[in-house]
Design goal:
Layout (H helix, E strand, L loop, with lengths): L12 H13 L4 E5 L29 H14 L3 E5 L9 H10 L3 E6 L6 H9 L4 E5 L5 H8 L4 H14 L4 E6 L8 H10 L3 E5 L19 H8 L3 H14 L17 E4 L4 E3 L9 E2 L5 H7 L1 H5 L22 H8 L7 H24 L1
Parallel strand pairs: 1-2, 1-7, 2-3, 3-4, 4-5, 5-6
Antiparallel strand pairs: 7-8, 8-9
Helix pairs in contact: 2-3, 3-4, 8-13, 9-13
Length: 367
């Protein structure tokens, strides 16, 4: 997980207008559900830390019937898209059952997975009810680098076996990678791996502290200017990012601390059943074991949106705020304050601004 850089997928004008109306009406169109925080890998950069070692069916996870009920409530509330994530969601024995229920309720499902647990049960569910997308994380293009990042020998081979099984089954697959010290030199080779499988590929340099406050993941960051150079190797991302930056850079500032879609059209539900504005936010939660989704959405989440900026807050007026990836929740994790500017995110914004401004200048010179 991480904050986005320049946006590669801009919406058609009519759909964008629909999203604005939905945001104004606070319709929960898009959400994510983390079925578990358990994971079979031990990636050096993971923000979950010790939460990955939970017990199957333990108190950290809600049961199958709970998730069926939540999915029914989401569908009735107007939800169109759900991301099923973790941890590693395929670790749950009931993954296929929950997945089927999401799709049968008319919700477009995306699944985030490391692909090491893809089996015939999973493939059968995807064949019966195709997902919108299955996005697989690559940690390297070689076994040496991949297994070094995951901390689990053999994970590279199991990932590729699962990935290629999905491709052979004609599942729509996307690939992504976190940019880290360990794998930076293999990002071009990972792009090739995606091309060979006719899959889109994206990278993300946004590493953050663990939820328990451990800043260890930050040690794996590379210089922001180098990370942005790897991002900008994607010509489609660069071109669309330039269009987006040009359109958004003069947008008037707002006084809300959170100006994204969290709590407006977006939400997150964690494994214990807490409704939150988004995956990165830990405040303003509502226990769905004690009340309905709409009760939490209407009575609790709006308090999150009431948060205002404070005097001296810089980010809401910066022209780079749409491309730096800054998020107050992530600022809280890194600096201890939602109102303090994280230096690395600012460096990413500076580097992206230079790259995209240069592209816009070149375009203007060609006219």
């Amino acid at each position: 997980m991480g904050a986005p850089g320049p946006r590669a997928n801009e919406q058609p004008p009519r759909f964008a207008a629909f999203l604005r109306r939905a945001a104004a009406a606070r319709i929960p169109l898009n959400g994510s559900i983390a079925l578990t925080h358990r994971c079979n890998l031990r990636c050096v950069h993971c923000y979950l830390g010790g939460e990955r070692a939970g017990v199957p069916g333990g108190p950290e996870e809600s049961d199958t019937s709970f998730w069926h009920g939540v999915v029914d409530q989401l569908a009735d509330a107007g939800c169109l898209r759900v991301l099923i994530t973790g941890g590693e969601p395929l670790l749950r024995e009931d993954f296929a059952e929950i997945y089927r229920h999401v799709v049968r309720r008319g919700i477009l499902a995306t699944v985030f997975t490391n692909a090491t647990r893809v089996d015939e049960t999973t493939l059968s569910a995807f064949a019966e009810l195709p997902p919108h997308l299955v996005e697989v994380t690559l940690y390297g293009a070689s076994e040496e680098v991949f297994d070094k990042v995951t901390g689990v020998p053999g994970s590279y081979r199991r990932c590729l076996a699962g990935l290629d099984a999905l491709v052979r089954a004609n599942v729509r697959v996307g690939l992504k990678s976190m940019i880290m010290l360990e794998n930076r030199h293999e990002i071009p080779a990972m792009r090739v791996m995606a091309e060979e499988r006719r899959a889109k590929f994206r990278v993300d340099p946004a590493l953050f502290p663990r939820r328990d406050g451990d800043t260890g993941p930050l040690e794996h960051r590379i210089p922001a200017v180098d990370a942005v150079a790897l991002e900008m190797a994607d010509e489609d991302l660069r071109d669309k990012g330039a269009d987006y930056f040009q359109r958004m850079r003069n947008t008037a500032p707002v006084d809300q601390l959170f100006s994204c879609m969290a709590g407006r059209t977006g939400f997150h539900i964690d494994p214990v059943g807490t409704l939150l504005p988004c995956l990165m936010v830990t405040s303003h939660g509502f226990d769905l074991h004690k009340g309905s989704f709409l009760t939490g959405w209407r009575d609790v989440i709006p308090r999150f949106l009431e948060q205002k900026i404070v005097p001296g807050y810089e980010c809401n007026r910066c022209e780079k705020r749409f491309i730096c990836g800054v998020c107050p929740a992530q600022s809280q994790m890194e600096t201890g304050s939602a109102y303090e500017r994280p230096e690395y995110q600012c460096q990413l914004g500076d580097a992206r601004c230079r790259a995209l401004s240069g592209l816009l200048a070149d375009r203007a010179g060609e006219v």
